[in-house]
Every structure is written in C-alpha cells, then in structure tokens.
Design brief:
heterodimer; A: 350 residues; mainly alpha; B: alpha+beta
C-alpha cells in the first residue's frame, strides 16, 4: 500500500498525510456509532427503548448531539490555567489516536509497521494520562483534580498487568511487530494465540494460561480506558464527572471522542494479540475471505465485538471502590500475570 | 490461599451470571410507554379534573361546604318569580331552579382531588372528568370558571333581586302595618304592654 501510494503521488509526504485519513474517518464514525450503540444497548438491557426521536430508531441522535456541542460555548473557568486547560483535551485525543498508527487493519493497511509496534502502543497510549492529569489540574476544581489523580493512579497501576499479559504472547511470537503477530496466526481459527498459536499438539497445555492472559489484558485495558467498572476517575455519583467537569462544548466532546477511540484501540490490541488480528477464522480455505479488503472487515468485526463486551460489562457491573481497584490489580492480576509469564516461558524453554 | 482462588472463581462466576442476565434482557420487550402518544389505561374510580354542568346546578353550595381546602367558590342570586334560571329553569331531573349562579369557580391549584364535593351534590352536576393533563404556566390559569352567566347579566339579576327584595320588604311592612292597624282598631285586649312594644319595633 505504501509503495502503491508513493507510485501514485510520487512523494513520501503526501503518502504520510493520506495514510491516517481513513483511520481518522473510521474513528469518527466509530465514536458516533459507539455512543449511539452504548445508549441503545444500555436501554435494551434495562428494558427501555433508548433514543428514538431523531431519525428512525434514533440513529441520528449522536449526530444531533455533536451538532449541539458545536453550537455550545466553550467556557473557560476564570481561575483555571488557560493554556493547559485548552491543551489537555487535544493531548488526550492525540494520545488515543496515535495508538492507531500501529493497529494492523489489513495486511496491506497499517499506519506504520514498527518492529516495536506493541511497545510503541503501550508507551503512546499511556501518554493520555498526562492529558487527564493536566485537565484535572488546570481546571482548578477539586473534583477535577481528584478525577485526574485517580485516573493516573489507576492507569499507572494497570499498565503492569497489561504489559505482562501482552508479554506472554510476545514470548510465544518472538516479535513486537503488530503485522507479524497477525501473520503468525494465519491458517484458521485454531492457530490464534488464544488457542495456543501455531504448533504441535503440546501447545494445548498453554490454553489456560493464554486464556487467563487474554482475560487479564481485557480487564486491565478496560481500566486504562476508564470504563465501568473501573470508571472511578469519572465517577458520576461522587466526582460529578471527574476531569471533564469544567469542560463544555467541543472540548468535552474531545474527551468523549478520546475515550471511544481508546476503546476501539485496546480492542484492536486484544484482537491482534489473541484473536488473529485481520486473519479470517477460516484461514486460507476460502481465499476470498482472506483478501486485504476482507481482512479489514475481520479486524473491525473482532474489534467491535470486544467493544460490545466493554459496553455489555458497563451495564452489568457497578463501579469498584478505590481500594477494590488496587486489590484487583496488585493482589490478583499482577501475580496471575506473572504466573502466566513463567508458565509460558517454561513451556517455551522445554 | 484457598480463599484467594475462591475469590477469583466467585468473582468470575458472578460476573458471568450478571452478564447473562443483562444479555437476556437485551431481547426482552421494552416496558416503556411512549407517554404523550401512548397512554396508560386509567384505573377504576380515578380522580382527575372536576367539571360542573351548570345546566343542572341549583346553587345549593353543598359542594363548597364539603370541600376540605375551600377551593370552590359560589355566589348565588335569588330568582325573581317569573324569571327563568338558565335555559329552562329546570334541572335535567325536573327540579325547579330558584337561584342564579353568577360565580362558580374551582381553583384547581388548590384542589386535592378528594372527590368529597361530588357526593353531596343533589343533582349530580359536579363530577370528575378523565382529563388529567392541564398544567399551565400561570397559577391564575388554574382558576376554572364554570358559570354560563355574563357579568352584565349578573349585575342585572342582582339589581332585579334587590329591587324585588325591597319590594317584598315594603309589601311585608305594609301587610304588617295593615295587621297592626287592624289590631289597633280591634277591641283592646288585656295585654296592652305587649302590643305597645310590637308597635315600637315595627316603626
């Protein structure tokens, strides 16, 4: 794809500008759709109807919301640190969007196939913490500051199980390149890392460890995106809205946008690491289903499934307390992630 | 150690149970009633906005007396003989109406919907309707006026009634005087003092 675009435009810079555009469009469309889906699914889970006034079944609801947010005034609190206050939302969204650079949408379409792709992803998405802390600090509001501090404490703690559980797959694959993860899992559903990856029958021993690794990765990424049950940085009932308390209009939308962008990004990471990335579950049995365009379809479908599970969990579980949050992380997930790591390392050595 | 693994197992198991329940509810029929378009059936003996059928009202004031919050305000004018109250001068049950009702207001802002005014009504002209959506932006708009008489009509009838009352009083006086003179001309009774007092009071 890169070579193709360079051939057309004859320039590297134009290629670099064009490559992120479809991703940005996808993120925008996804954010609109996911907000609507979230509201609809929550409504259905609570035996309600949900938004149904704008357009058929309310499908225009989020578009109308965005139109409304565009019209709203952006209020800057008088005692806030104005420069930081304005920078923070963009920083949060930029961090979330930069993660998309290494998401392998298809075998030919990836922002940049770094050989340290996974490392880059975790490094750059945790930069979003800076934005949240800045937003909390610069608002000059106690609730915002609490929200910011909580989200920093939460994201920093949950970086560890995220990295450790991702590492278990890295050990099997022997690479950090996102594209290579997908290539290695080719050849059908049985070769996905959740089922032990490609290899002999002995790989089946690893299934429980990889399964728990996937679970830990899912839970900890859930915490990193500040979603319920780990939404104590937002905590509507105690901190009003956490870091976005003082934000209005499109700046507020930016935070929302970032949250939903991150939701899909971490789903993409789980998909890539454990569920074959863009590989079709039928492998090469039907070559059409594994063509580059269909690969995009598979990747999005798998990613959207995990987004659905995130939404599903949000409307099932209540919020955890701060101490429970730390207990889950330090007492349960980190030891288990280490056990997985050791067990998989042991298998690979033997 | 045992507790540790028990905790993990129970949390995962209970979360899965919860997720199962929520997923099941996705396919349930929604219980929402789209209110302004769709309305619940009202229960039996529901109590809503009051209405007064002025064709039947005889102005007996019983509903106003029954009202615990005094939200009903009635004024009446006596009808002069030969004057027809309302269109026919009769209620729908054929009772004769002897009072004009120039003012019959119900302050629904005060009304507590106890329905106590409905039962004493002898002609069953005050009753609860099925209307329950009548909120308004001003409190004055909740003061409902039911009379079919215009203010001019009320002034006219009041004047008529006053004149009639004066006339009646005069007539009474005359008859009384007549009686008194009759009494005076009659042969004296032993009780003189009594008639004396009567005369004083009359004059």
């Amino acid at each position: 794809m890169d070579q193709f675009l360079i051939n057309i435009f004859g320039d590297n810079i134009i290629k670099d500008i064009i490559i992120p555009v479809p991703v940005l469009i996808w993120v925008s469309v996804f954010a609109l759709g996911a907000v609507l889906a979230e509201r609809k699914i929550s409504a259905f889970m609570q035996d309600r109807i949900g938004p149904n006034r704008t357009g058929k079944w309310g499908i225009l609801q989020t578009i109308m919301d965005v139109v409304k947010l565009f019209q709203k005034e952006f209020v800057t609190p008088i005692r806030s640190n104005k420069i930081l206050f304005r920078t923070a939302p963009y920083l949060v969204f930029t961090a979330a969007f930069l993660g998309y650079a290494v998401l392998p949408f298809s075998s030919v379409y990836i922002g940049v196939d770094l050989n340290l792709g996974l490392f880059y992803f975790f490094a750059i998405t945790s930069l979003g913490v800076m934005g949240l802390l800045l937003a909390g600090w610069s608002s000059n509001n106690k609730y915002s500051l609490y929200g910011g501090l909580r989200s920093v404490a939460q994201i920093v703690s949950y970086e560890i199980p995220t990295a450790l559980s991702a590492l278990s797959v890295v050990m099997i694959a022997g690479t950090l390149s996102m594209q290579k993860f997908c290539v290695l899992q080719g050849g059908g559903i049985q070769n996905w890392y959740i089922f032990g990856g490609p290899g002999g029958i002995s790989r089946l021993i690893m299934i429980p460890f990889l399964l728990s690794s996937a679970l830990i990765l899912f839970i900890s990424t859930l915490a990193e995106t500040n979603r319920t049950p780990f939404d104590i940085p937002e905590a509507d009932s105690e901190l009003v809205a956490g870091v976005h308390l003082e934000y209005s209009g499109m700046m507020f939308a930016m935070f929302f946008f970032a949250e939903y962008a991150q939701m899909f990004a971490v789903s993409g990471i789980i998909t890539t690491l454990f569920f074959g990335g863009w590989q079709s579950p039928f492998g090469d049995l039907i070559p059409f289903l594994n063509s580059p365009v269909m690969q995009i379809f598979w990747f999005l479908i798998k990613g959207l499934f995990f987004v659905f599970v995130q939404i599903w969990l949000r409307w099932t579980l209540p919020r955890v307390r701060v101490d429970q949050l730390m207990i889950i992380c330090w007492k349960y997930m980190i030891p288990l992630a280490f056990i997985n790591l050791f067990a998989i390392g042991l298998y690979l050595v033997l | 150690m045992k507790q540790y693994f028990k905790n993990i197992y129970s949390s995962i198991a209970t979360i899965l149970i919860g997720m199962g329940i929520t997923l099941k509810h996705v396919f349930y029929k929604s219980v929402t009633i789209q209110y302004p378009e769709q309305k619940l059936q009202l229960p039996e003996r529901e109590r809503n906005r009051l209405f007064v059928n002025m064709d039947d009202c005889i102005g007996c004031d019983q509903c106003a007396k029954a009202c615990p919050v005094s939200c009903i305000d009635i004024e009446t004018i006596k009808a002069v003989p030969g004057d027809i109250v309302g269109k026919t001068g009769l209620t729908s049950q054929g009772k004769k109406k002897a009072l004009f009702v120039p003012k019959f207001t119900i302050d629904l802002a005060k009304c507590c919907y106890c329905q106590l005014c409905v039962f004493p009504c002898p002609t069953e002209c005050i009753y609860m309707t099925e209307v329950y959506e009548f909120s308004s932006f001003k409190r004055d708009e909740l003061l409902y006026e039911f009379t079919d008489m215009t203010p001019e009509m009320a002034v006219e009838k009041r004047k008529k009634a006053e004149e009639y009352a004066i006339e009646q009083a005069k007539k009474k006086e005359e008859t009384a005087k007549l009686a008194a003179t009759k009494k005076a001309t009659e042969p004296k009774t032993p009780d003189i003092a009594k008639t004396e007092i009567k005369k004083d009071t009359e004059s």
